[in-house]
Amino acid sequence: MSSVEILASGGTPSVFAQMFGSGLIGLREGLETGIVVMVLVAFVTRSGRRDALKWIWTGVGIAVAMVFAVFAIIHFGTSTMTPLAAETIAGVASLVAVVIVTFMVLWMSKASAHISADLKEGMSEALVAGSLSILGLSFVAVGREGFETALLMVGYAESVSGGWWPLLGLLLGVLTAVVVTIALYQGAIRLNFHRFFLYTGAFLIVVAAGILAYAVHALQTVDWLPGRENIAFDISAQYDQSSWYGTIFAGIFNFRPEPTWLQVIAWLAYIAIVMPLFLYANLAKRPPAPAKAPASDQPADDQPATDDETTDAAVSPGANTSHPVTVHPATPDAGS
Q1: What contacts 130, CB < 8 A, 6 or more positions away?
Q2: C-alpha to C-alpha distance for 105 and 278, rounded to whole angstroms
Q3: Are 18 and 26 spatial neighbours (Cβ–Cβ below 8 Å)?
Q4: Is the pLDDT higher at 98 or at 193?
Q5: What is the value of pTM for the model shown?
Q6: Beta-carbon contacts of residue 135 (< 8 Å; ≥ 6 apart)
Q7: Measured in whole angstroms, how far is the alpha carbon of residue 43 from the centre of its chain?
Q8: I need a surface site. Which of 84, 193, 315, 325 has the fewest CB within 10 A?
Q9: What is the pLDDT of residues 44-58, one digit of tens each?
């Protein structure tokens, strides 16, 4: 079988399968980014510097535009290349995506506890430095998360179809995250951030393992990696890849009924190494839920106390907190 025939083999996953995985990526990363923006907005509002909001939103807008530009250039730029050249780029981009998602879920589990303080310190300095510094801080804060999402999405989209549906799923996921973030800011809903990011983080690790398996297959196809003909198992006769379950597993987890040994080893090794590290960081050091203070001990003016506590908790997606968090809109302190 030629390399081009190998590239063309296998059915295209269903629209639902292509959109579900990317939608979850958009929801998780969009909510994570939304929490960062929420902290910046709350901080400048409470500081009595509402004039800085326009620069924050300008930086956010530029960062979002950059994210979609990066995704479009890498993802759709391969359409003008030969199949083998496109497969090479897709394989390399997928490897980069796996590295990024691994760093993202592991680093966030450790660094989330001080992200809020870092953002506030940076914004304090930016408010003194001027409008361009405010714009730059919001651009970097959002752009960093967005750039990671764009590369992750390139790997995911290439592994499922290479078409427009994964991008549409990403957009729907991001829009959902925007709605959830606004509701959180207004105090309309409550969300247990620890559980949300724990479950979605574990899910993304499995998705990343599938992207890694796809990258191995792509690089085997162009002879960058050996073992293209060494099939680990073949359940094509029993496994209907065009069925509803086949398209879902192919579209979300990149499962194929005839993987090579190198693909299987890469998938198992990634899960065996990354998943325990992630679960240990999020579960092993999880402290017991704090005891509820008596009503009489609560501060009379609860606005300053609750805003800082809930906003800090919200911006810590990997934080070890087991109770639901409500985020209220921050308002300037009285007399400020």
Answers
A1: none
A2: 7
A3: no
A4: 98
A5: 0.65
A6: 55, 56, 58, 59, 62
A7: 24
A8: 84
A9: 888 888 888 999 999
**CA 107 to chain CA mean position, Å:** 13
- pLDDT tens digits, one per residue of 116-168: 677 778 888 888 888 888 888 888 878 777 777 776 666 666 655 556 777 78
> Is residue 302 in some structural domain?
no
> Is 327 among the domain residues?
no
What the block records as the tokens of 107 is 């680093």
Helix axis angle, 53-77 to 165-185, nearest 10°: 160
Contact call for residues 173 and 23 (beta carbons, < 8 A): yes
Name the residue range of residue 95's domain: 19-233+241-284
Token output for 15: 């629209």
310 domain residue, yes or no: no
**Token pair listed for 126:** 């930016």
Residue 187 maps to a domain: yes
**Which tokens go with 39?**
């902290």
CA distance 191 to 324: 5
What is the C-alpha to C-alpha distance for residues 223 and 15, in angstroms, rounded to an integer? 30
